[in-house]
Amino acid sequence: MLKKLVFWIIIIVIVLIFLGTGVYQVGPSEVALIKTFGKYTHSTGPGIHFHLPYPIQSHVIVDVETIRKEEIGFRTIESYGKISYRTINEEALMLTGDGNIISVEVAVQYKIKDPVKFAFNVINGRDIVRFTTESVLRERVAVRNIDDVLTVARDEIAIETAEQVQKILDEYDAGILINKVYLQEVAPPDQVVEAFDDVNNAKQDKERFINEANRYANDIVPKAEGEAQKILREAEAYAKEKILEAKGETQRFLSVLKEYEIAPDITKKRLLIERLEEVFSNTKNVFVLDDSGTLKLLDVNELIGGGTK
């Protein structure tokens, strides 16, 4: 009797264990892929579910919401709550289009967009993302010079890499969606950092000198142009003034000539008087020494006045 009881207990336990292989729980960010005799049949969402016991049915759980990250050229190390980074030179060192070596550290963020393809077409999703990204990144760096990679082309390289990696993964039917590729650190190798800094400093000095020269030119050229315009306007004004004076003198001469032709003696005397008035306008008396050696005093006002009468 006891043996039978033990036997049935064992049978019940085995049945419960067998049935228990069909019970599974799916997390909030996960889906479960149900396989019947090894072939995918359907999917289930979050919650506690039951399928036929193994080996009739089995399940594969895939996290489809969590953003995953792969690191190329470096690794994040967490120890006792502290985070540090270690460079992987074998992955980080790359060759640029102008023959220079540069260290590039990249992080790739991705998620699962098709859990069926990811679970059944890909053996190791992390490796395929890392190796594909590294390959495409080396190709993108190799077609640019080192200055562009270090400065203006960083975002462009990241965008092109993400697009190309996504295209390759789609061709592989990997079921992976690349969210973002970002270049975390781009720098010359440690062995040539000092020499590279010297080159950069020289370039910056060159740009500074050019900018200073341009500022000086922008300051002095307008001043010189303004001074030239001022001199030109003064010269034009002086020329117009002299032309007008010459025209006035010409008209005066012609008018005098006309009067002279009518009355030569009168005109000659008038001109003489006008000249005397102009010369002796501020003089009252003039002393004259005649041929006999006598010093005579002439009254200019009387002389001029007498001449006009």
From TrEMBL:
Pfam family membership, one: Band_7
Keywords carried by this UniProt record: Cell cycle, Cell division, Membrane, Transmembrane, Transmembrane helix
UniProt main location, coarse: membrane
Membrane-traversing stretches: 5-27
Localization per Swiss-Prot or TrEMBL: Membrane
Keyword Phosphoprotein in record: no
Role according to the record: HflC and HflK could encode or regulate a protease.
Quaternary assembly: HflC and HflK may interact to form a multimeric complex.
Family in the record: Belongs to the band 7/mec-2 family. HflK subfamily.
Protein name, per record: Protein HflK
Provenance organism: Thermosipho melanesiensis
